[in-house]
User: Fold this.
Amino acid sequence: MIFMVRRTLFAVAAVMVAFLLICGCTGTTSDPTPVEKQQLRIATTTSLYDTKLLDHLTPIFEEKYNAEVLIVSAGTGKALEYGQRGDVDVMMVHDRAREDTFLADGYGTDRRVFAYNYFVLVGPESDPANVSGMAPEAAFTAIREKGMAGDASVIFVSRGDASGTHSKEQAIWKAAGFNYSAEVKGSGDWYQEAGTGMGATLEMANEKEAYTLSDIGTYLAYKGNLDLVTIVDEGDILLNVYSAMQINPEKFPDINSSVAKDWVNFMISDEIQQEIASFGVDQYGQPLFYAAQNDWEKIGVTEAEVKNPVV
Amino acid sequence: MIELDNVSKQFDGPAVLAGVTARIRRGEIFTVIGPSGSGKSTLLRLIDLLDSPTGGTIRVNGTDIHANGEESLRIRRMMGMVFQKPAVFNTTVTENVAVGLRFRGAEERVVREKVEEALAMVGLADYGERRARTLSGGEMQRVALARAMVIEPEILLMDEPTANLDPVSVEKIEELVLRINRDLGTTILFSTHDMYQGQRLAHRVGVLMNGIFAQVGTPREVFTLPATREVARFVGIENIIDGVVVAENGISVIDAGGIRIRARSPLSRGEQVALCIRSEDLRVFLEEGGKTHLNGNTLPGTVASIVPRGPFSRVTVDCGFALSSVLSWKAVDNLGIREGSRVTVSFAAESVHVIRQE
Amino acid sequence: MYEIIEGFLEAARLIATFDGDVMGIAARSIIISLTATVLATLIAVPLGAAIYFGTFPGKKSLINLIQTLYSLPTVIVGLLIFLLISRVGPFGFMRLLFTPTAMVIAQTVLVLPIMTGLTISALSGVDPVIRDTLRSLGATHLQFLVNIMKEARFAILAAVAIGFGRAISEVGAAILVGGNIMASSFASSTRVLTTAISLETSMGNISQSIALGIVLLAIALAVNLVITTIQHR
Assistant:
């Protein structure tokens, strides 16, 4: 018996060692040219990552520019934090107001808008707050009212993580006439903060049969696993604009500025704009993102911001 | 060889050793006997430099061993020690025995030879490749002995090495101790709480009691002529009677609570004494069969108890004080005595050892 | 229930076919945690020995502190290392954030207390008679030290195995300083078993999560097997 245990153990150890050797070898043989290959670090909002849009685009970029793309997926708030600390070369986020501050403070530069879509209010098919088809502000007001009145079936799950989506949610509360921190956040059991990414928040809302605000891309990508349906999807305030910018090399001199510029220009190039516009169509029957290139007026940005390459 | 001069040791609390003085001669087996907790281990540890004394000096070959820290390794390397608890290193028997030689930087060839020799000596010649932890307690202790002896120490310290062993293993260790001393001339300091073991092995015995040597002498001296009441008690003398010397005329007469006992002693009248009489030296007769012992003692009494003790019976007779005798079962049957029988107890004056009471 | 069974079946398939992603992540996990464990061993064992054999004021408090740090939360270690190696941090110039090296550093720091503490325990576990025996055999200070370590070797090995187990199973520090990056080259990626499970679960890829979970469990089991065997010697 002991003998057998020893033998098994020996075998396990041997396999592990062999495994490590193989991995160690492949590890070293796979990067014989790391000197030439430039590394590009990108902090991205989760929606671009969880929808696999970036997984789709990076191989094209890597091949074209002989670079290696390292993507850290986090909420917009965290991405901005990484950017402010100079820990990444490029940021891809969706929060115009905070981006403006970020640029004004000199942390970022050369912002370009490459995609947009709409936020949607999703919720259980039963729609306990009876807000289907309302304007976003009105729907939010009604959900809050029912929730505050103690209707236990009405729950709103917030990202609660300072992400772009969370920002948008706060903007809608504000537009509906509420003071977010005083009248919404912490105002009752009906309002719950997930403190996590979009995908996980959708899963949570699904479990709780709750309402939540999601970008359409992540919602569509997760829809197969969810019982949630679209409740509200029309209204100017639901516009969701994605932009890429490089971290200011004047502030952080060892930022990989040339590859960062390549990436920003890559995102607004005709080829990639077409890729973005068609991404997900065969899988979801509709695009997850719209290309920004020709809709600059619609989304209220300058033409230069969608078309002019960074130099 | 080893001089203990007023050695004392105190940990937190009362002193364990309170002025131990003795000389251990080169080539002798000196056993330290004493009850548990009497400080035997402490004394041996002080000699092996595993602890420092609180007072007094220990000299080995004339050198104060605790005086000079730089010398301590050299001095310790003259000695080998075996501890009470069999403890072996977690490796093979051979490697266990080799440790001391490796510490001294011996050549591999020498190590191999000497380890083989040492293992053969303790009767473990074929055990070399065994893992030491798998051995029995007795075998481990023999490994420990080989490990201590392979470095050819001048002094071998053994701290109750047989306390946890079965009788067969004890016998083997004792044989080895005697052989090592005889063949190699190693000075051996052996502690034990078993007075008979002390007696079997020793050239001389030191009885450690209350932190001092109550008596140092040959086994015969210690067992027949104990220096104090406590030593008498420890070496197994069952009959110890208090009295006072009332007459001296070649043979002393001692009054013990109204009963007079004759004994040989140089003490003078009025001295307070304790009388030690070994139970083996007492004879018991039925009252009518009793005959007076010339110049001896014949005391009438009543059998108080008959308690079996191995193949013997311990017969306790109340003669005004209790006297215990050891008789074979057969003798008890032949005498036809039982509890309550009237008997006489007789013993020679020479059988009485007189200790002056302080 | 169906989801779980389906997850397990898919997981079995991923493992049986040596799915590239799963194996790559597992290999990275083992390499990073093993490197961290080796580094931590090189620090913790001598450090533990120094603390154990040394005499200095505050020794007891130091050992208490080390034992308290056994339960050092991994995210706190992650945060600390993040702040140190982030571009604006004191070691930012080394550009270590979001690299496997950063994860190795974080895991090393994470397991140092438990490995140091267990080394101290291992050394205190050596029978006092063994100590006396070594001294009585005429060991020099160095010989004494080396031989006590030799006696404690199995317990120290167990400490190493426990350290490896803690390193490979932690997620908080790995995600903070590693960033859970899946790059095209093996060496630049920082996705390990725990961070991958966390991501895949949040993305609803249950079978992938279960497969990764099984691999992690298998590694933990192997480690445990090593520990028990060591401790039964």
Q: What stands out?
A: The domain at 38-115+241-307 of chain A is CATH 3.40.190.10 (D-Maltodextrin-Binding Protein; domain 2). The two ends of chain A are 72 Å apart (CA to CA). The longest helix of chain A spans residues 2-29.
